[in-house]
Protein: dihydropteroate synthase
Organism: Neokomagataea tanensis
Amino acid sequence: MGIVNVTQDSFSDGGRFFDPQAAILHGQELLRAGARIIDVGAESTRPGYQAVDAVQEWQRLAPVLEGLANKDALLSVDTMKADVAHHALQNGAAIVNDVWGLQRDPEMAKVVAEHNALLVAMHNRADVDEALNLKADWKRFFDKTLDIAQNAGIPLSRIALDPGVGFGKTQTQNIQAVRELGILKEEYGLPVLLGLSRKSVLGWITGQPATARLAATIAANIRGMNNGAAILRVHDVQEHIDALKVWAAMDGKYD
């Protein structure tokens, strides 16, 4: 899954693709590099992000989704707002990537169900708790998410889970989320998406700024793949494809 941020304040590339044409060209570059999914977001969710209303968010998204539709791309919309998701699914998107796992906007599950869309449901917390039992909180959160999904008529076969690296967690808990994400696969039998590209936990470990965290990102993502991740959400598609080809070859999985 390649990332296209149509924002001014995303933590690593805010403003670079705020212009719709720049965002479209970037999405096309990610597809040529081998991305299977393009995840387009128009509201940053980094710590301290500046919220935008649904109208403004959709105005940013609309031309980009139009420009990427019918480009052999599976389009995902990264939003926590049901109205935005509804418009996106009407205009080429097939996936809703909800950083609040159906638990922020009460209409989100209905929108996903009505459009027969795919869903990425991410674990999130409003506050950081150093004493948090992450595994127990995952279960509490995802049990609720899947109950909401079931009641709305979203089939389990159309859901992937995201452990929520960087959202409501200490840096130690972020590392734990990668190390133990296989628990989610075992508990729920659903695909796991891992989104940690360039995130602060990698800077915490290496001391590198966001623009210099490619090696750290690849290392963490390979560990995540070894632990059961099925989808990687990344900024740097070609580099990850090269790394994963080597990883698979060394593991006897690539011919």
Notes: Strands lie at 2-5, 37-41, 74-78, 93-98, 118-122, 159-162, 193-194, 231-232.
